[in-house]
Amino acid sequence: MRDSGAEAIAxxxxxxxxxxxxxxxxxxxxxxxxxxxxxxxxxTIGVDYALEYGSDRLEMxxxxxxxxxxxxxxxxxxxxxxxxxxxxxxxxxxGAVVDRAFFVIDLPDLGGAKKLSECGVETAALxxxxxx
Length: 132
Prior knowledge:
Elements: E1 8-12, H1 15-27, E2 31-36, E3 45-51, E4 54-60, E5 70-78, H2 82-93, E6 97-106, H3 112-118, E7 122-128
């Protein structure tokens, strides 16, 4: 993670806050919370994205990212990649450079790493659990 060039760490609600904030603190980098709609007490920008069962929205404070700032995403689980790819799109909308994402667990059979790769984000995970 130290070699990723990250200047800030973004974590997706909610378990990404636990892992992302810990990584950010350990690296002495700013932490950027990516929240579900209506949770932040400031003006926000957002992106809507599709889920298997409907849609959702992610939001962030656009002032938390400097234009061109390199941001790495951290979350607990990579499954289909829907939330992570929406997070990358949101951070890029705010002006960040996003090309790395780190997960505790990857479920490779669900295709999340491929989806992120297609939008220019390289992934790494501490462990993988393949399906049957």
